[in-house]
Design a protein that fits this description.
By secondary structure, the protein is of the alpha+beta class. Helices cover 23% and strands 35% of the residues. One of its GO terms (molecular function) is RNA 2',3'-cyclic 3'-phosphodiesterase activity.
Length: 171
């Protein structure tokens, strides 16, 4: 049986932002058995899609190239654990990020890659299986100058890996 794959459209933080996220993650108390993504896989998800290859992948890449991304100056300023036992770091409300996400979803709907866009809460997952994790009372703000978004293929293999397919710079 072939390993499952999925496409991810997301913002991947540069090294200095990853370092800030990792330093914050190190300040938590983690329960036994939780899992943490490696630094290189930290990202803010814009959209997940079924895997597309060949002509469909090329159409997707062309669609994404037509969605203008503004430079986004984000501030990661809150963290916590959600009801599904996923621990996250979240950016402060940002109109530009929300507008970019909306434009991306419109383009994907218009080209048939998605039929609808559900609710979306921008976040970076820092750990899973985190029931009873304890986060610090304060997250020192982490500034993130997001200047590109990426299309990656997630390979659900052991070990899990991301394959960079394309990067789209901010205009």
């Amino acid at each position: 049986m072939a390993a499952r794959r999925q496409l991810l459209i997301g913002l991947f933080p540069p090294a200095n932002v990853r370092a800030g996220i990792l330093a914050h993650r190190a300040d938590w108390w983690w329960p036994r058995g939780c899992t943490m993504p490696p630094a290189g896989r930290l990202h803010l998800t814009l959209c997940y899609l079924p895997d597309h290859q060949g002509e469909a992948e090329q159409r997707l890449r062309a669609t994404l190239a037509c969605v203008p991304m503004p430079p986004l100056d984000l501030t990661l300023d809150s963290s916590g654990t959600w009801r599904n036992d996923v621990s996250v770091v979240c950016p402060a409300a940002h109109d530009g990020l929300r507008e970019f996400h909306d434009a991306l979803m419109r383009a994907l709907r218009q080209t048939g890659f998605i039929s609808y866009a559900g609710s979306w809460t921008p976040h970076v997952t820092i750990a899973r299986k985190t029931e009873r994790a304890a986060c610090p009372a304060h997250l020192p703000p982490i500034q993130w100058a997001a200047r590109e978004f990426r299309l990656v293929r997630s390979h659900f293999t052991h070990p899990f890996r991301h394959e960079l397919l394309d990067a789209y710079p901010a205009c």
